[in-house]
């Protein structure tokens, strides 16, 4: 959410909402990011060398390309780590600040989606989908019969009609 | 009657026109819906169209092809979710424009650019399909490898903030692309004994996750009740004179790129859009604006990806080789009708070739009309309260990705990609290079190894096309680095200050556009 | 307003169907005579291992519409592409053997086990072969190889590159088979699908290719490449002038065949009902017409013949594909 007219309000809002923006930005986030990247790319390199080959061939093997990529990634991650250690982090951040309510909303939405993925095959689309849509709408702040009952049912119906009837892809 | 007359007569038949309208509506609908691609819709429709007359059937299938190419831009611009992979590059400038309150303008420019792209490519189809198609046969493994390497250099231009982070993200994308079976030997790589992984990560699921779901999650995370919703404020619809002028150069360049990429088999609108966007940026005077709501950027992205339609059609009809995945399905249908695409189509059924061209052109013009009218309604939907939009995007993306394989695994891939996309967004890693790596990585590796199997390493430098393309790729990497070093020497290259300047400028522009309203 | 009502109705119907299915499967032989006439009483799902639009999908949809006429219920084609087709095969193996989940079985079922996949033909009931698409060896138009003998000779004195539709594909196996049979050095070059492989021959990028009849025949008849041999025991109607490998003195038989399968353990009456319906459908005019136009041959084998055939193919590919 960067170059919009809301950027200014977003930045102002950050201070009201959390006040968690210390003026000299701390080094640890960038260092943590870089260390994670080193760990990830390093394991790619290790795993690439562990790829089982059914056939020993001359020239490029199935390991070659992943190994190259792992090494490239590791190199870049190390540059990132050195930069994070040596250079002062840039103070301004392009991302809008998060809110506590936002975190809760996010976690609930992810949880609802996971539940939906599990429940859908166990029941039927026409059963699980309206409940899921209704739940996400409620998490987003929707209230009332229109948002929580009519809309989810209509949405499910529309999807059902489109896939099962129009495209003949059974949901 | 000569072939021209009979070919056109078959198209102006009312039943054919009805088929065309139905196809356009279906195509637009599936285009808008993330996950369902044009090729899937064409494949499903092919079941019904086999019973129709060939021209009527082709009217349905080709207009789905065209309609999907318009529909997929809409979610790309409005909610940062490419409706199909062809609209990936549209999100780069389309969504920023929407956030600046220029959604209407972005949609109109996108529709205009797509129209010009398709029409120009169809002109090439009409005049020179057969000679141009020969070009496709020159694209063997070494040429494909060179083209793909050139495509990979785009990573540098789409990592606006930190090149290191951008290229690292690209390397991650490339690595993700190696998951599955090795393209040459079939060995399992990074599959950890999970059967679903041996087919690789589903590309569509990953792009929907990284773009659409990540953006949705970010909005949930930062939501505040009082915030204004810039997207619903449409702003201007039509470009002004200056903006039309701005569109000219990228339009011409990207259409050319789109046609060539379209002709190359196995390269379609997704790759073309990215290359078109990148090349337009390279020649632009306002490079900094790319990725931040540039009119040139969206023109180039949509012009290039749409011009692949004519290019693919050339390869398909003149050679009988599918120019892209939709065309592969189309060939299957045509054979059942007893029409064999290939050089003999032009000699045996010239009237049909005329009909195909006419259907494409009519479908494109009608699409432009529909999209200019319909988009007002589409954008109005963005006025609805956020919770409606969020839940709609989420269920659309889940259902859309599910139908790609009818397997929950694909939905899980999408959800995980969404979470990773959010983390990347929050930590300053751009999503574009990941997608680029995932898209081009398998092509790069497979074609490199094919070329080595066939001819050995010298081939890349002895074949003219690949030699030129690899040198261009080297330049594309070197030029920005040299420019940066030089800039630093002159003392104005401090990236921090540059970015601050950019941020100031975009804010100023946003304020200007606000006062215009 | 009508939408919610329709929905509710569908819900009720779905529930009813579920209950019915549950009943029928939970009481296997309570009153057997009635059950014979009862199957099928609900929709049948037909699983395809490839995405919508390919050859397998086309064949499956053509067969499904014939099966609908035979069985009097809806046969819904469901595409479950991924992991070289093993996703769909696994799905079939895991479904209930009640006759309501069947699928299109491709040649890969006899190959995947030798390529590191956990796919065993013993987990399935095979209900009949329905088609065969023979492979064709082709060379570029201006190739010095005029006959299959020339190609083999070149492979013996040096090596020849041969394009195919992908790593682990049947056409790659055919190339390995050619090398195995003749002792020629063949470098298989896997491409991403049959179209690109044939394009590589047309563009003179490889010495030769093995491809399906559909893509090769069109290019051969259009004068874009030269087909040297059909890998089947009789000539192909789309390539009447091209000799079979057998006629040329090579015992090479490679084809992309397909049939219908179900998880193992189908009740006898269900298996018979399905096998009968498949036999009629696979030999119906409209099905034969569709698959012939798309380059395949109408080849029918009964469940018993088909099962034996798959066993043979399985052991043949074991020696060809497995790395010692």
From TrEMBL, chain A:
Q: Which residues cross the membrane?
A: 31-53, 65-86, 106-136, 148-167
Descriptive protein name: DUF1468 domain-containing protein
Record keywords, A-Z: Membrane, Transmembrane, Transmembrane helix
**Native species of this protein?**
Cryobacterium arcticum
Instruction: Give the InterPro entries listed for this entry.
Output: DUF1468 (IPR009936)
DUF1468 domain span: 33-171
Comp. bias (Low complexity): 1-17
Report residue spans for region: Disordered.
1-26
Give a yes or no for keyword Membrane in this entry: yes
TrEMBL record, chain B:
Q: Which residues form the DUF112 domain?
A: 17-436
Task: Write out the biased-composition intervals (Basic and acidic residues).
Answer: 498-517
Keyword Lipid metabolism in annotation: no
Q: Does the keyword DNA damage apply?
A: no
The segments labelled Disordered in the record are: 488-517
Keywords, A to Z, come to: Membrane, Transmembrane, Transmembrane helix
The membrane spanning regions, by residue number, are 15-36, 43-68, 104-129, 135-156, 163-180, 200-217, 319-340, 352-373, 385-402, 464-483
Name of this protein: DUF112 domain-containing protein
Automatic annotation (TrEMBL), chain C:
* Source organism, top-level taxon: Bacteria
Keyword annotations for this protein?
Signal
Span of the secretion signal?
A: 1-24
Which CDD domains does its entry note? PBP2_Bug_TTT (cd07012)
SUPFAM superfamilies per the record? Periplasmic binding protein-like II
Q: Which family does it belong to?
A: Belongs to the UPF0065 (bug) family.
* PANTHER family in the record: BLR1237 PROTEIN, TRICARBOXYLATE-BINDING PROTEIN
Q: What is this protein called?
A: Tripartite tricarboxylate transporter substrate binding protein
